[in-house]
Amino acid sequence: MRARHLFEERVCASAADGSLGSGEWTPAVDVYQTAERIVLTAEIAGVRREDVTIEILGNVLLLRGGRPHGRAGVADENYLRMEIPSGGFERSFRLPCAVVEEGVEAALRDGVLTVTVPLRDTPHGRRIAVVAG
Predict the structure, then answer these.
(1) Per-residue model confidence (pLDDT) at position 22
(2) How many CA atoms lie within 13 A of 104 on its CB side?
(3) CB–CB of 92/61 below 8 Å?
(4) In CATH, what number is assigned to the domain containing residue 94?
């Protein structure tokens, strides 16, 4: 049953939404766009701020991190049940448009990582007057 669940996680992580995932677990992520920015929120409770890496490569946002195995002072053989995933993760998201890399901000609060990516101003075009030549 667990093997099937892992398979489904892999298939869902590489869905048509442009996201890809790999690692020992896959955090749940929401991505939405406003007029000024793209916002990504990821549930990564138990992951320390210093264990998270965020990169922008062209129009791809790469999110990496890791949660330690087990709890401090508890030996693996003492666990009666272990459901909280641990280890490393990696997710990548193809962004729908050009972004301003310099203005990307990230905050981790109460186990939720929020990444804000400003959108690049796109020219609205202009009308070209045709003159007699």
Answers:
(1) 67
(2) 19
(3) yes
(4) 2.60.40.790
* Domain of 21, in residue numbers: 2-118
* Measured distance CA(91)–CA(54) in Å, rounded: 10
Strand 37-43 to strand 29-33: parallel, antiparallel, or no bridges (unpaired)? antiparallel
Establish if 90 belongs to a structural domain. yes
Residue with structure tokens 């981790």? 108
Please state, in angstroms and rounded to a whole number, the distance separating the CA atoms of residues 96 and 123. 16
- 110: alpha, beta or left, given left = phi > 0 and alpha = psi -120 to 50? left
Give the amino acid at 93: F
For the chain, 133 residues long, give each residue's pLDDT as a single digit of tens.
444 444 333 433 344 445 556 678 999 999 999 999 999 999 999 999 999 999 998 889 999 999 988 777 888 888 888 888 889 999 999 998 878 888 899 999 999 999 999 987 655 556 767 876 6
* CA distances, 11 to each of 15, 16, 22, 26, 28 (Å): 6, 10, 11, 11, 14
